[in-house]
Fold this protein.
Amino acid sequence: MPVIKTENISKKFGELKAVDEVNLGVEKGSLFGLLGPNGSGKTTMIKMLTGQIKPSSGSAKVLGIDPVKEGIRVREVVGIIPEQETPPSFLTSGEYLSFVAKIRKIDGIEEKSDWWFDYLDFADKKDVLCKDLSRGTRQKLMFAQAFLHDPEIALIDEPLINLDPVMQRKVKKFLKDYVESGNTVFLSTHILEIAEEICTDFAILHKGRLLHTGKTDELKEKGMHLDDFFMELVERS
Amino acid sequence: MFTLFTSMFKEEWRMHSTLFGNLNFALFPVLIFAIAFMGVFILPLITTVMDTVLLSIVVHAQFILLGIMVGSFGILGKEVMNRRFGQASLIAYSARSLPVSEQMVFLNFVVKDILYYFILWVLPFGLGFLAASPFLGINLYYPMLLLLTLSIAFLMGLCTIFLLSAIYSRSKPALFAVLAILLAGFLGSSILYSPGTVLSAVLLPVSIFDSFTYSGLLLSLGAIAVFFTLSILFFTSADTGSEKHYRNLLDSVSQRLGFLQDNTLVAKDFIDLYRSGIGIGQTIFSFLLPLGLIWLVLSFLREFLTQNNILFTIAVVTGVIASTMYTWVTEFDSISAYYFLPLNISSIIRAKTGTFTVLQVVPVVFIIAVGLLSDAAASIPNAVVLCLSVSFFELALMIRMCGLEPGTMIYNVRVFLKYILITGPVILVLLGLTFISPYLAYISVILFIPAWYLIKSGFKKWDNSDYAGF
Ligand SMILES: Nc1ncnc2c1ncn2[C@@H]1O[C@H](COP(=O)(O)OP(=O)(O)O)[C@@H](O)[C@H]1O
Ligand SMILES: [Mg+2]
């Protein structure tokens, strides 16, 4: 049963069709990669799925909830990493996690945030203001923030671009384990190697249109590489 | 360098015009032009109740005020650059990766802002007056001179505040020392000289307009240049020092605000205001200084107005200026840092209203101080009620019309027109009532009724539209 489903979902900004009649289904327990060049509509898609902006037409369901009517409920149950890693400037990273916990009404935040500071190795930045953090550290913080409440689904927008290889590996492992225990990840990225390595399913978006959906394993069986496949599709369209 | 400047300028323009359409924004200077143009035709009417010197003081004071409002770059400096450019668009941000010093980037940013506001406000106002003058047979010398002196007024207000805020960003005690010296100088000279002389020194452009001299012009331009250069030199980027560690305040502050529904968000706002220095900075630069100037100007009307009238006028103006505290708490917060959490836009606005309400302590204290200092203690309660009613009514208007973007949306011609067409009459009626009897000031509480409806409908309106996320 799909936990995320869209029907002919579209978003127009004036004349521009940022997302154009997209039909997607994401199965429970999958690590779903939404792939596409810059400006292809990935971020717009995530924002519509989480009720942050409203589709111009079409509809979506996330865990059976309509994000247009009940955006808040969707954002309660899912975890989100937004595209820009901008936690509030004048809170420390520790305070930011506790801020998120208060809004999400999560108990035992001390332990949970300590676990994250430890896991992503930035405990020394706990008392530093977010505005003084490096981009990589901000991204770690935004990552931790999204998983504090153990959501069933996480929608994460380009979560790895500022991380060093060691951290990337840790994060990738976390995501794999996370879906293995029955959760779902909806990952948007333009870095195809990452998608090829960790995603179970993928969809290719180009200029707002869905060009292809499939399983990463099927591609591997055919002996194809994701980037060749991607280039071919994008060039053909 | 010039490319950096033009791209910043274009970026600012694009931000405003994409937010509400090219036309609605491009018409803004046209509207200011039209207001000035039409204003000239009622000049003969105004001068029957107010002599021209006074009128000139009021008009120039307004442009000094405008300068003051625009000019606190120093404290906000980088924060504003980040807010306004950092996330959505990246010129100021990426400039850091160019072979350009931070001071240069900042200089470009400031000059761009000055020119931008000059084109939006000062120039069209001056031109409107110029265009209307032939119809009334006014010698063209006067509107030309006015354009010059208004520009000077704007720049003087701006550069003074810029300098003070740059000092503030370096060292807070230094600022208080400078302010103390200024105040002492002001009080000292008002004992030695007549109030008129003191005022003409503070309002130099007025005296230049009154009787033009090249020395006066040179003096004011020189002051502007010196202030400006010093400010740029004083500006240092905020994070040159080593990494600082802070104690966790969020838990204790939000606990203390537990009586509020949105205590977490409000606590976050106060921590922002406190740690960034914007809270105290804005209170001084965007609240106390402009109101001090207005008080000064009003005290010259003592021949025409009673102490009570002056207090009530200040109460109304304070209400309007206090309502702009809503822009402090919205402009300097990156809402995109948390609006992906389970929050409605309306709950964020409601939290901002909570922060705003707590901040209203500042105008209340100010009104009480003015009342006590000007021997109008008996009218203080009336004045406080009047001030708060106006402030909350204006807040409600802003919420309804601008949502979380009051600083930007005001340049939408339709929003601006509605704002002044509603605010103007309300203020005039209230002032008229208080001039009849001080007790009528209490009638202003009626404003809480439309305010409540405006806020409620504003919540609905903004929940139903996409958050642009600037
Ligand atoms: N708020 C907005 N207003 C206007 N255009 C937008 C807005 N948000 C996104 N776009 C445009 O929509 C298209 C898709 O953007 P986005 O979803 O951010 O792409 P991606 O995340 O794949 O890089 C781009 O052309 C972008 O410029
Ligand atoms: Mg994107």
